[in-house]
Write a structure and sequence with these properties.
Layout (H helix, E strand, L loop, with lengths): L4 H4 L7 E5 L1 H10 L9 H4 L28 E3 L2 E3 L4 E10 L7 E14 L3 E12 L4 E12 L23 E6 L4 H5 L12 H6 L9 H16 L7 E8 L8 E9 L2 E8 L5 E11 L2
Antiparallel strand pairs: 1-5, 2-3, 4-7, 4-9, 5-6, 6-7, 8-10, 9-12, 10-11, 11-12
Length: 287
Amino acid sequence: MAIDPAVAVGAELPEVTFSWSASDVALYHLAVGAARDPLGVEGLRYVDDANPKVLPTFATVAASFHATQAPAVSFPGIDIDLAKVVHGSQQITAHQPLPPKGKATTRKRIVEVQDKGSAAVIISEGVTVDETGEPLWTERSSIFAKGEGGFGGERGASSKVVYPDRDPDRRLTVPTLPNQALLYRLCGDRNPLHSDPAFAARAGFPRPILHGLCTYGSVCRAVVDDMLDGDVTAVDDFSATFAGVVFPGETLDVAVWEDSDRLLVTAAVADRDGAPALANVVLGTRG
């Protein structure tokens, strides 16, 4: 059995201690479309040599930033072919503004394995603390494993966001570069699904796709820049469901609704008649 829920659920994953630099942060920001205008003063703050501002979504790559090998989907009670796996959802809660450089430790565990019939969803939670033990961020993510369901588990609760019954308050156009997946993979995600045409074909795609977390970071950055005047410290929480694929070079149509102290967001692919890219997107702001 590729998944044994009795072993997987509650399993603690190996503790990871890592460090990052201002250059790592700057590269991540370039990979999610920051500083596209080299004369834009606010955009250049994302790539400052010594003290760049830091998007909370940098937390999704910080621990594995210097990885050079493709990840393995091998955890206690779980052993799945990487070609069967796509990212399902991601949430980052920032407990404080992320520093431009530092050292931290992440402790992560498997909290749930859902049985969707034709697929399984594996959900993990992790807490990252700095060298003094103060929490920096908490993350919750899920991966969708095709062909691994049917083991008799629970389907899991829905996390669908209810959007206002009105036009969005803002629409943003977020372009991606044809080589953006190749740039983003330098942030530590070496999954060949995003760089190897033959591997992408084996996974059922006509060509390599953009990393879901690249779309996630790009949309967060665009919303922060437009709706929060570029203030990355105003973001308390950012969550999204990966609703479809994005191919490098496509343009995202991002809709934003203001809803009290949070922003509700969707992202669709303009090039393919609004095919969904991100759904159930919530950006919570600090009060």
